[in-house]
Design a protein that fits this description.
CATH topology: Aminopeptidase
Distance between the termini: 26 Å
Number of helices: 2
Helix content: 25-40%
Shape: globular
Radius of gyration: 13 Å
CATH superfamily: Gcn5-related N-acetyltransferase (GNAT)
CATH architecture: 3-Layer(aba) Sandwich
Number of strands: 7
Largest sheet: 5 strands, mixed
């Protein structure tokens, strides 16, 4: 869920799109942003994040879901080349074990 400017809760659906090498966030069925990555056997490198809808927490929801997915996989290290992902990690030390 993301919170809209007026406080209403808006469902953000995040999925991994491995064919496009990116995690995608959707609001009301529309693409609202993505976090692009490259993947190897041991690491996932976040290269770029693009958010099309600002002010609703889409970017944070997107990165949080992506990092939780990496944690579920269990064996990957995160390399945050993307400044947005790097800033998120700096603000959320609970993900420090992934880097």
């Amino acid at each position: 869920m993301a919170e809209g400017r007026s406080g209403e809760q808006i469902p953000v659906e995040v999925t991994d799109n491995p064919a496009q090498h990116r995690f995608e966030a959707h609001l009301d069925g529309e693409l609202a942003g993505f976090a692009a990555y490259t993947l190897s056997d041991t690491k996932i490198v976040f290269t770029h994040t693009e958010v099309y809808v600002e002010g609703y927490g889409v970017g944070s929801a997107l990165v949080r879901w992506a990092l939780d997915d990496v944690r579920r996989r269990g064996s990957l290290r995160v390399v945050p080349l993307c400044p947005f992902v790097r800033a998120y990690l700096d603000k959320h030390p609970e993900y420090a074990d992934l880097t």
